[in-house]
Amino acid sequence: MAKDLTVGKPFKVILTFALPMIIANIFQQLYNIVDTAVVGQLCGSTELAGVGSTASMVFLIVQVAMGASVGCSVVISQLFGAKRLKDTKTAIYTTLITMGVMGAVFTLVGVVFVDGILNMLSTPADIYALAKQYLQIYFYGCIPMLLYNGITSAFNALGESKLPLYFLIFSSFVNIGLDFLLVLPPFNMGVAGVAWATFIAQTLACAMSLFVLLKKVKKIAPSEKANAFDKLLFKKIMRIGLPSMLQQSVISVGHLFVQALVNSYGATVIAGFTAATKVEGVLTSTFVNISNALSSFTAQNIACKQIDRVKQGFKTTFYIIAGLSVVMLVLSLTIAEPMLSIFMDTTSSAEAVAVGKEYIQIVGCTYLVCGMMVIENGVLRGAGDVKAVVFCSVCNIFCRVGGAYLFAHLFGQSAIWWAVSLGWLVGTIISLVRYMGGKWKTKSAI
């Protein structure tokens, strides 16, 4: 049954809605952790660097998928909040077709231009073959990956955040099992084994969730027949989705530049950076889940003109984010090395561990700033004020990349880590000004 987020106490509604997404993200992070840990512990730091050197391109694909799904989620949420059920169904079908086509385009472009991508990233010669092997297989999985993002956005837009959790738990265990099966004897597939494990798990999750979503959509206003594709709804989705994709693309392109700069320091720094960003991802991923819950909450409520309720939701998420930030800061300052040891042998990779520890402790000091930026953008995105989110992200990444390149030659690799916090600070200030200005209140997508 789809969930109405326009009634009930905002704190309870948002937390209850966000909790399944947070748990789902834990499992998502779990198999990302296992992927990286299996490579780092069973294969070695060179293999970890090979996979890590492609991280920014993988991030680009994932972020574009998420950006596109934002447009889908906002439109579906607002249609559902406005009780336009036939259009809600049509928007879901349009989402599925759009995401499937995008996935096919990514696969084609990625497989054809893989060498050019790796050269653009300044991939070191000693890990080039490993990076190419991993990235090619990853491109094969773009269709199920993008389609699954679209399916999840549809579930979340309908208030059904528990269902993606079930599919993700299943795929996580499949991925973990395949990681060990394909990397260890008798297969000994190394980096390729981890890539294929992810491909298989994502494909299974996509197929299962698609089957359940289509069954549920049929139960929404069963007497009203929806269209398989609607140009007008597609344009509305793209009106929100394209700026969001641009936002995510800008962030991702910025990461490509940062990755190229990191790659120039060699395999040891790449390995430390890879492990540290995995730890960072685990710690900050909850921010994203809470922001996504706030976006759906905002979208449904703004469709019903309940602006004060949206503001109450923002305050609620701020308190949650503040508490989480304190916990994450303590973890970053006290157990950075044990967290890194999950991904690499601290004895044989002592230099890489030192790099990762430095990154975690520098960035950890500004997690509250990151959390604030994310939830501010959550309200703006849910309201349909996506251009403001794009502008915030452009400024964020411009400061991050510009700061990294400007100061790295003067202060070394540490400047790259400090530039992350600088970008967050600038982004937070810009999005807060937009939120306080209130123009988002009139940006409904439907």
Q: Would you mind describing this structure in some detail?
A:
The protein has 446 residues and is mainly alpha-helical. It has one domain (10-442). Helix content is 83%, strand content 0%. It contains 17 helices and no strands. The chain has helices at 10-43, 45-52, 55-81, 85-112, 114-120, 128-140, 142-157, 162-183, 191-219, 231-263, 267-303, 307-334, 336-340, 350-364, 367-383, 386-411, 414-437. The radius of gyration is 21 Å and the shape is globular. The two termini are 23 Å apart.
Task: Indicate the topology.
Blueprint: H1 10-43, H2 45-52, H3 55-81, H4 85-112, H5 114-120, H6 128-140, H7 142-157, H8 162-183, H9 191-219, H10 231-263, H11 267-303, H12 307-334, H13 336-340, H14 350-364, H15 367-383, H16 386-411, H17 414-437
Query: Given the C-alpha coordinates, what overall shape results?
Result: globular
Termini separation (Å)? 23 Å
Rg, Å, rounded:
21 Å
Q: What's the count of strands?
A: 0
| Count of separate structural domains | 1
Strand content: under 5%
Low-pLDDT windows of residues = none
The average pLDDT value, as a whole number, equals: 84
Largest sheet: none
**Helix percentage:** over 70%
- The number of helical runs is 17
Class derived from helix and strand content: mainly alpha
The ordered H/E elements are HHHHHHHHHHHHHHHHH
Features:
446 residues, mainly alpha, 17 helices, 83% helix, globular
